[in-house]
Fold each of these.
Amino acid sequence: MVYIGISIKKKQAEIIYKNRNLAFFSVPLYHTAMTIHDPVTGFPLGDPAAPPLTPGNLPAHGDIQAALDRMILSASGWRAVFAASGSEADAAPAVGPAHLALAALMADSFADYLSALRPPPSALSVVLGIDARPTGTVLADVMLRVLAGRGIQAEYLFITAAPEIMAYTRKKDGFVYISASHNPVGHNGVKFGLNDGGVLSGGENAKVVAAFKEKCARPEAAQTALALVRACPEEDAAGIFAAMPQHKKDALDAYAAFTRLVAEDTPNGKNVTILCDMNGSARSLSIDRAYFESLGCAFHAINGKPRQIAHAIIPEPENLVYAAAGVERLRRAGGAGGVFLGYMPDCDGDRGNIVYFSEKTGRAEILKAQEVFALPVLAELSALAAKDPERGLAVAVNGPTSMRIDDIAARFGARVFRAEVGEANVVNLARLKREEGYAVRILGEGSNGGSIIHPSAVRDPLNTLTSLLKLLASRPGTTLGDVVDALPKYTTTGVTEERALLTVRSKDHGALKRNFQKEFEAWWAGRKAALAASWGIASCTAIATNGTAETVGITDYGVSGAGGLKIRFDGKDGAPLAFMWMRGSGTEPVFRVMCDVKGDNPAFEAALLEAETMLITQADRKTCILPEYTAYCAVIYE
């Protein structure tokens, strides 16, 4: 037993926890100052008598507006640098007053949204959790008080993986998840969702955004935020913190059961060793070890303490080297034979790209994000085709997913449908296609390696690895390296490569793309013959992705707006050979570009990306010199 005794002047309270299964008992908490701690990590949850936002630290209205202006409010997540210092690399827990006020108004806006969906006398229940970022604690403190003050039953999970909170919320009304996903540690943000297992769609998120902005614009916004926080009685805040361990246990149980439901056929992992570089993420407090050991796998973790963020958060090749080194150590210690896999999640634990030990090369190989996604697509389509060969199969992906997925899908007679970048867009597209009668079990965003397996509506590395185990079990004697080698060959720009991230001055991306169209058409006219001679390109087609809609053959590139724009290049036979793609990020202040070309052809990919970058730069310059955009472009080009 673990006892946490809290000494208080004149009065005492004691919370008693059974550490292993998180069952807890508590006596009533008194109206007096005390900080309640999580019994597992020892991290503070909050002081019921000391709300973070007070009359003494109330921000000026101008500070609230300035903080709001720096926020990105997309369906994929509301994000900003929340660290009080303003540094994205700051791992300190402090959050400035303006961002505390914003957190209160965020919670109030979501409470309004839920109340409109389920008006009184309905009793609303909302689950709130955070990823492993230190700033999450105080933001959660503020938002929990606002929800409780609004009469909503708020259940707190503290540090929880995104798939975990979304699995648990399926029997509640909604969730608030405080996270900035793969962004640096000083960032934070919020994702809102209902009980369908995913985040709000773009359209529904826009409703909450509009309400939030309107609240922030009011001159009395700071006073409103303070009143919302103070509306929660101290004993209610104490009760929320005290109940956290039991809710966390319930969430872990729900997540474990749901993961087995998603798996359908549980693979045998007897000869498999799995290593996870937790990197201090929310997965360090989730079901990973228990789940894989239940399959018979040997499981190991490095950087396994929550908030032990040892290196950059995004799970791309430059950060997967630590998992690769760990897999090689395990392979040397374990000897030949068996399967050795590794993965690294991001801070909220919904992404997790893969490494594997290759007997062919004698080292751990890091899979590219597009390869990571291709493998579960192959696994799930082959399993579905074997069970029901007459059923209409489909895959839902985002615009920049490599065309290798089309080649894989064609093997099984499956259709590929594309949505704009953003998990919510892909999930909603898959739902629409299921309503049309398609079997869409596998979906996701190949550009970041995230796979979603129905009935889940969120990326989850546990599901990805389970698919890999099933794939290997269905092919006795075949190694993962053999399967990777057999994937259709494509050369694709990596999402985190420096050359994939542009800075553009144009704020109106529709106008930028119209100017890009002029530049591209002139370039195409002058180089069409050379492109045909060098790469076999015979024609091109412009494609827009906006939300769940893909429009092929657009004549006005500007209709893609803030969505994705793709130029697909086809050969003489009409078969696609390559594409260039672009879109402004919804969660980071960058303009993303990439190219995908058929075959192992880095020279083709590099030439195409160089041309795309040049044309966008020229279009950006011309967009900014137009009178209506000069206010956005007070930058001198060199």
Note: The two ends are 66 Å apart (CA to CA).
Amino acid sequence: MSSASAADGPAAAPAAPAPAAAPARSAAYTPLHGVERAFGTLVLSLATFMTVLDTSIANVSLPAIAGDLGVSPNQGTWVITSFAVANAIAVPLTGWLTQRFGQVRLFTASVVLFVMASWLCGMSPNIETLIAFRVIQGAVAGPLIPLSQTLLLSSYPPAMAGMALAFWGITVLVAPVVGPLLGGWITDNIAWPWIFYINVPVGLVAAAFTWSIFRSRESPRRKVPVDRVGLVLLVLWIGAFQIMIDKGKELDWFGSPQIVALAIVAAVGFLYFLAWELTEAHPIVDLRLFAGRNFSAGTVAVSVGYGLFFGTVVLLPLWLQQWMGYTATWAGVAMAPVGLLAIMLSPWVGKNVARIDPRKLATVAFLGFALVMWMRSNFNTQAPLWVILVPTVMQGAAVAFFFIPLQSIVFSGLKPEELANASGMSNFVRISAGAFGTSIFTTLWDSRASLHHARLVEQLNSGNEAAMQALARMVSGGLSPEQAHAALDRIVTQQAYTMAVTDLFYLSALMFLGLVALIWLAQPRSGGAGADAGGAH
């Protein structure tokens, strides 16, 4: 679900956080060669794989985690959103941390801390503790994807940079395929804490070999000022907004003084954040980048698209497990194929993004997502597995055309010295949108389900012949009148939640169509650092 995260789903995503644009290539060291370069690519990809895996592996396990810890599935989604929000906040700090500690030290330390946080997540005795450790896990993961790309680019000659990141991208896209399957199997056959424990051996191996290969290629260190006020305001308004949308339904939205207070804090904090960042000499996020037409259109398109995508890929396994009778394993099977076409098509897109107008490629992505969401909007309670799988497979093609062209548009025309800030800013907005999308979609799902349930119940009266016959059949089958009414209510509730989820899929289809118009407001230019950065993905 930093970067590119978010890719960031159960399927989370392709869940995969999209590859973040790499900062400018370091010229301090010559490229690696032979086995050392191949092994360096492998361990960097392994660390990134571990990070991306954690954005998708928990999605199919949410019902089990929620049930085991005694909370509702909606409260369980905090396991995902807490990670994503902390991750988004940490991404803009990557540049400052890199200058302060060095890219190799920071990367290695982040991996080790990620391992420790993963272990603590698995040990969590309650939902509050788990969320706290997921916040830590998301925060320490912030630098991993941007720095893995930086180190990777420094390992290859410029002519091979695009191919290097294509291989890296394939590794990232494997995580969304493995995540749901692995998470579902572990949850059903072992226990959900092991979805976090598996990071321990992977992370320790990645940290050890990264340090062994790259420690002699450390970047220069220097003390630079950090925008403390901007960081506090960032945490304040994002945290208040996230809590507001997560707790809104539970607390009756603006009928609750707590929600009103959170809304005020979020709004005022955001306004102060804008004013401060636009006047600060060393802002934590450079909002001035939005003055660029390509950066603005590309960042908004990739962020809204990712929020829609990630929200739906969290919602789908919840619906399958709660209302369609799927186990975690089978929910993973239904979600996993999303990465297949993405893996096959991404190298072609990466190779041709510099030759074909990226707006055309992005249009293919948005039309593909719209088609997938429209197909899902026709799901019903009788849908067999193959009907669920067809749009999931097709979605992989849309993912392949999504991240790479949009990254190319975002970075088109930027100067080399602007790439690092642009990478942090675009990924911060995108990952935040993924977290917000998850909370908004689960909230809307419950709201629409309540509306549909009320409308369906209105029709179940003594004048409804079909309903009376259904009750009579259940009573004649041995159920008491109370049991028959309970069974009928379960059927009505299943239908209500199914109608609600298809409503959201239909809304997503319309919004993806709207993004087609938005992306054509950009005017990407060929050549230049920005184009190269974009094409590298």
Note: The radius of gyration is 23 Å.
Amino acid sequence: MKRKYLTILILLITVQSVVAQVTFKTVVSKSELGLNERLRIEFSIDRQGGDDFTPPDFKNFKVLAGPSQSSSFSSINGKTSYKLTYTYVIQPTAKGTFTIPSATVTYEGELIKSNTMKITVTDAIEIPEDPDDPRYIAQQNIHLVAEVSDMTPYVGESISVVYKLYVDINQVNVQNTREASTPSFNGFWNQNIEVKKWVAKNGTYGGKPHRFVIVRKTVLIPHKAGKLEIEPLEMEVTAGVPMGRRDFFGNMLMNDVSFTLTSGKRMIRVKELPTEGKPFNFTGAVGDFDFSVTPSKTELQSNESAQIKVALKGQGNLKLVKLPGIESSNGLEVYDPEHKESIKTTLNGLSGSVYDQYAVVPQSRGKFKIPGVSFSYFNPKEEKYYSVDTPPIVLNALSGVELSDENVVSNKQAVISNEGDIRYIHLKTDFVSVLEDEEFFNSDLFYLLMILPLLSIPLGIFIGKKKRERDSDIIGNKRRKADRLARKFLSQARKELGKKEAFYIALEKALHNYLKAKLHVETSEISIEKIAEILNNKQVDESTILEFSKVLENCDYARYAPSTDVMMQQEYENAKSAISKIDKQL
């Protein structure tokens, strides 16, 4: 009898534990979808009190919406049920079979994981031509277009890309838009022109009247010849399609649909600059320019300075041009130039002026001649090279000590005899027998070695105390660890300091390798704006993101612009600082 009661008690305890078990599961709307389709994924827990919900890493997917949270409660025949659901809408970014990891939630202090889900992504599917399908209607009447000003520019010639959104307002109504991914411009120097406000204008698309807005404007300058591909701009669009019915107040009822628009890839065929007629001193200036070298004054006193301005103005690749320098003469001190720019970016390219201003100071009385400067450029409209030779500048120092032969620094050096460097071989030695030395036992060295372990005890205590203090310094340890990590990734760039192109290539590669190691994403193929967005999602502060992005931008720009050892050293320190800050925050 007792055995019977014991069995019943065990069964009751087992049933109670099963009933009390928490269920946290993942459900998807489909396990196989096309590259252009969306997936609805839900994470549900059947108990109240679930806290600290953490979604999985949606690698190979982008989140379009979510998390949206909903809960339900019911009681039927005394049996109650509860359900809390977190919902996301995601879209794949690549083809293949992927596993979505578990989400986690905390229930009564215990971490609970949901089940994983395997998703198969196939090629993009075609939406069937169904005139009654709101999604089909929307995609047929909304278009994203990339208009390129010139499909066959020369190397260094500015072109523009204007992205326009065309809408047939008689068929659909655009309610919301969001950039899903920004285009990458590999092989181009690029700069966006801010679009402050979308202004709707009348236009045509496919021979039909449409309204359009400009959503993005970019100026590009190719820096190599060949076929260069402009990646597409992608936008998430939510549109309302009329249902053909009206509500009680006479307003047209809309069926809302969301989908992704793409501008498509554009292939640019960049032409090499012609070799015929190319001047020997041509350094890559492409455009229509005026070049000048002018002094602030030509008569001055000893130790009084004059300013020599080497200026270039006009329209072309001004940000990528290296201005020629001026040559000094004996008795005239020339200081490093101050570089200044005043450049405006429009759809027609870069226009304005750049100049280097040199300070020159005569060291004695007399006349000093600064040779003329030669500059050449290629005009892509005329397909012709031009060379400009400026006249020499003569500076007249009216006072000071007249330069004489004694003031001229001679390169002659006296011959120094090396007779004293010869050493003769000694034929006699001064060996001393070691047998005559004092015995080691009871010697000074013997007693010194005896007390040495005792002296090391307080030293060991001191070193141990310092080590404990260092180990307890959490912030300092994080800083030192981050600094070591930064030096590790930047080691190759440090070796290339002084070699401009090799240094900036190594520096850019180090930054991308660091992000790949820390974020587990391939960043070399995505834009700087996308990298900034990823870091922002990882809770990295804005100032650090700006500092990191600035170094990446400078890497791309500096390879085709003048740079000094000081500038390279500064970029190295900036990169080291940015990596350290990001690593501490991650």
Note: The first helix runs from residue 2 to 19.
